[in-house]
Amino acid sequence: MKKNILFKVVTFIIASCLISCANDDTNKQENNKSVKTKAYSSQVEEAKALALPIDEINNIPKSIKDKRAAAVILSNYVSIKDSLYSIDISKEDAQKLGVDADLYTSILQDLELSNKIIKEARQKGEKLVLPDIKKEAKKYRISNQIP
User: Fold this and answer.
1) Beta strand 84-87 pairing with 78-81
2) What confidence score (pLDDT) does residue 119 get?
3) For 142-145, which contacts have Cβ atoms below 8 Å and span 24 or more sequence positions?
4) Is 100 in contact with 59 (CB distance < 8 Å)?
5) What is the mean pLDDT of each run of 10 residues along the chain (147 residues)?
6) Quick one: pLDDT at residue 11?
7) What's the Cα-to-Cα distance from 144 to each of 55, 134, 140, rounded to whole Å?
8) How far apart are alpha carbons 55 and 22 in whole angstroms?
9) What is the signed CA dihedral for 57, 59, 61, 66, rounded to 10 degrees?
10) At 1, is the secondary structure helix, strand, or coil?
11) Environment class of 145 (CB within 10 Å of its CB; exposed 0-12, middle 13-18, buried 19+)
């Protein structure tokens, strides 16, 4: 029971990395690729970019959509190293993909918080199996026919 609750907490923190908000609009991207300024041609395109069902995208504030879009991009670069999460892309390279610097920093902080909770749980003797975010993102793209 205790392990199940802890796993849910860790999963919640990881999920919040994907959906929490960021409010700083000060960073501009090369070639206007910023997720903050991205205009989607349809709700279907936006839903795919956010990895959400179409019926959910209208109820989400813009700041949360921005962070979620950035997290979806960064999910391709999250790996497990030494039994903790790591982002395998620099802030500068992430910016080239459209991830604003403040969003990158915020997502990195969320992962660091997740890692802290994971470490604390393991110190208490909890056995955790971390979901492979990169593999889950790949499965999502394949199942939803996203390149």
Assistant:
1) antiparallel
2) 95
3) 144/48
4) no
5) 50 50 37 82 89 89 94 93 94 96 96 95 92 85 71
6) 53
7) 16, 15, 6
8) 22
9) -10
10) coil
11) exposed
Q: Is the pTM of this model over 0.85?
A: no
Amino acid, res. 5? I
Q: At 84, is the secondary structure helix, strand, or coil?
A: strand
Structure tokens, 6: 């802890």
Tokens for 86, please give them: 């790591």
Distance, C-alpha 32 to centroid of its chain:
21
Q: How many helices (H) and strands (E) does the chain have?
A: 7, 2
Cα gap 63→103, rounded to integer Å: 10
Give phi and psi for 78, each to the nearest 5: -100, 125
How many whole angstroms separate alpha carbon 56 and alpha carbon 127? 34
φ/ψ of residue 100, rounded to 5: -60, 150
The Cα–Cα gap between 137 and 33 comes to: 21
